Amino acid sequence: MKKSIPVYDIQNFSAYKNDGILVSRFGYYSQQHQHLHSAHRHSFYHLVFFTKGTGKQQIDFRTFDVKPNLIYFMIPGQVHSWNFESEPDGYLINFSASYFSSLLLKQEYLDKFSFFSGKPEEQVLVLDTSTSEKLVTIFEEILREGNTETPINDDLVKVLLLRLLIEVARATDLQNKEDINPYNHTILRNFQQLIEKNYTQLRLPKQYAELLYITPNHLNALCNDFLGNSAGKLIRDRIILEAKRLLINLDLRVVEIAEKLNFEDQSYFVKFFKKYEGTTPDRFRKQYITTPYGTE
C-alpha cells in the first residue's frame, strides 16, 4: 500500500500541441493511466465529460455517481479517485494554471465559474441532452485541432475550451452573481482567496474582515446570504479539508499534521477535528484506508 498520496503535474502526461494542456478520449486515458484510479492530486485544472460508464468517484472525500452526460471539474490540489463498475468513455482535458495567461488579461477569469470554486457539490454536474451534444461537438473540434500539422499555436483550442466552459455555465445557471452585485461578489471572492492563503495562520472572521476593510458582522452576513454558511464555518471547513488531505498520507503522524496546520499541540488538533467531523483523526484515517468510498 502506498504511504503517501501522489501529486501529478501536467508534465507527467503526453503533451497536446502545447505543454500546458492534454486533451484525450477518456476511455483511452483511463486504460493508459490505471494508477490514476486510486487517490491522487493534480497540480493542474482537470475536467471530464462522461458519455458512457457507471461507478463512483471521490472529489475531496465526497462521493459521486459516474454516469453518461455527467461533467466534473477540479482545481489544483484536490484529492480524486475513480471506481468504475462498467467501462467508461467520454472526453478529458487537463490544463495548467497558466494555460490562458497569454490570451486573457484577467488572470482570475476562471474564478467566475462556480464549478471551479473548489467545492465538490458545485463541481459535478449532470447536463441535458442539448448541452451534451454541444459539448461533444466542441470536444471533437478540439481533438481535430490537436491532429493538425500547423505550428504550435493553440489559441483556437483556448477559445474552444473557453466556449465549452461558458456553455456549461449557461446550461446549469452556475455563473456567479458578479453582474448582479459585483461589490458583494468581489468581497466574497477576496475572502475565499484570503482563506486559501492564510487558513493555517488566521482562524477568526474578524481577522479576515480587517484585511477586507469591512466589519465582522458585514462579512458574516454576506457569507450567510450568498454562500449559506457563516464566515467562521468557511474557515473551519478549509482547515478540516486540509487535515483530511494530510491524514491520508500515511507517512505523516498526527502530531506532524497538527504542526503543519499550526495547532498548539496534537491534543488541541484532535479535539478540533472531532468536534467538527464527529470522529478522531486516527479513526478517519483508518476508515478512509479500509473503505475509501464509504465516507462523505
From TrEMBL:
PROSITE patterns: HTH_ARAC_FAMILY_2 (PS01124). The keyword Transcription applies. GO terms for molecular function: DNA-binding transcription factor activity; sequence-specific DNA binding. Signal peptide: none annotated. Residues 189-287 form the HTH araC/xylS-type domain. InterPro entries: AraC-bd (IPR003313), Homeodomain-like_sf (IPR009057), HTH-like (IPR037923), HTH_AraC (IPR018060), RmlC-like_jellyroll (IPR014710), Tscrpt_reg_AraC-type_HTH (IPR020449). Transmembrane segments: none annotated. Keywords: DNA-binding, Transcription, Transcription regulation. PANTHER family: ARAC-FAMILY TRANSCRIPTIONAL REGULATOR, TRANSCRIPTIONAL REGULATORY PROTEIN. This is AraC-type DNA-binding protein. The lineage of its organism: Bacteria, Pseudomonadati, Bacteroidota, Sphingobacteriia, Sphingobacteriales.
